[in-house]
Amino acid sequence: MTMERQPRRLKWLSEVQKAYPGARRGNWETHGLDSPFAHQTYVPTGLEEALYRDVINRRFRLVVLCGNPGDGKTALLQKLAGQLGIDKTRQPTGTIEHRLPDGLLVRLNLDGSAAWETSSSNDLLNDLLRPFANGAPAEDIVHLLAINDGRLMGWLDGQTTPLAQSLRRLLNGQPSDAPHIGFFHLNNRSLVGEFDQHGNLRTDFLDQLLDQLYGGAEAGRIWQKCQTCVAQPRCRVFEAARYFGPANLSGIEDERRRQHARQQLYRLFQAVHQRGKIHITIRELRGALVYILFGMASCDTYCKADGAKKPYPPFWERAFRVATPDRQGRLLEELASFDPALEAHARLDRALLRHYRGVHRLAEARRRAYFTWLPEEIEQAGGPGTTLDLARGRHLDTLRRLPLMSDEEKQAVLARLGRGLSRLEPLPQPAYRPGRIPFRLHPRTPTDTMFWVETRLEDFTLESPLLGTGVSETGRRGLPAEAFLVYRLPAGNTVRLRLTADLFHVLLELEGGYQLSAATLEQTFAHLSLFIEQMIHAQNQVWYAWHPAQEERVYRLAIETRDLGFGYHQTLRIVPEN
């Protein structure tokens, strides 16, 4: 676009918008590497290089890329095929053959779920996998397969060969018993962040993805026409580029503010990953980024719009607000649940409304400041210690760092979780004793007396596994999507509570005095109720009781059982505990 009356359209914008599944002008760029633009914006993950070495060195004879639709299996195989010298990988289905100069015969199936001409998908899978049915093949071959895990499980149904048994083990996450098979489940990686060997959180993939969406090394040239465009003051695309564009783009914010905005965006996607309700695929991640950064409006829309009014919502609204135009997909739906506008801070909110005098809604001001205000500016406006975080996001950093914590740090978090568990339902103050976690009992007949059982904090442990990337050479591990609270029962076996980001947040908020009804907890976290019931059932020999008439007195109720030879005699003993 230029200062001329008839602006030149920015072709890159119309291309990049096609990477969003809900694009108005088609979504051609959501499938594989079937266009020059797809190749230009492809971001390697490290698995490509590792697989290339493993293939040419004959480490693997069968490579299976498994995962959800949109995980990037086909694109990754196409990239690997290009490294192996295979050019024609744009055909939709069928088996591709290519012999390397050293004699290795490579066969690829880019989509194990698809049929081809007169061959069904089962026929194609049977042909591709037959040489490995009983172990490693004798001939010098390597077969590469991209397939959805559901389709692979369907093919395995009824199969009894050694290959089928090995693939079942690998699908179930068990150790491999077939070293000639390279099995990579792309669900077991974290695209939104990884910990390096020193425990530092790295977002290289996201950084490269954003840079590539703006054109990478060519971004300065691609967006040059926007520098003199008459629509720049009202262009939402250029507005976002100032904060998220690569360093070689003219007109961007200073480096610290730009990096802060990017990290705030990454933190949003990391929160969705940690919440664990959906698996973030490459297709969904690219689509959501395109929607937030570029929207769906064309250059003409901004050029022809009234200069006094911007015709499309800004990036901070597209990131969080549910009702923005053309919004669709589970990932964008999840982003809205972390909307900073769902929480409040009186002093900060007054400062935001004074600063954005043209903004009539506090919600928009909070969303905007989340991305564009630096931490010290938030603290200056709201007072010492003030932060503007994602809704229910205060404890995400603690959950994220849990696998890297020392035993002492984990014990401190465990104690906080224990205090939160003990406050799920109100109990009298004497019920709270150091090193103990009480759980209230509910008699069938209402009574003024409160009853509870106790568990020991030392019988609980915390587990939080890091995700494996599938590329051991990188030495990196993905963000944990969950943690587990493990309780050792008196009999020696254990019960486990899956701590999602939501439940982790609630328990730490309860520890700080937050109130939540038992009915709400049961509806939201049914597995928590089951976990507590299992612990209560294990403490079926000792109870505690308290009555408001004796506020300082707690009674211990214990059942003593005697074997009389011809039967058992049970006695309930009630003794003061303090």
UniProtKB/TrEMBL annotation:
Name of protein: Uncharacterized protein
InterPro entries, per the entry: P-loop_NTPase
Species annotation: Chloracidobacterium thermophilum (strain B)
Organism domain of life: Bacteria
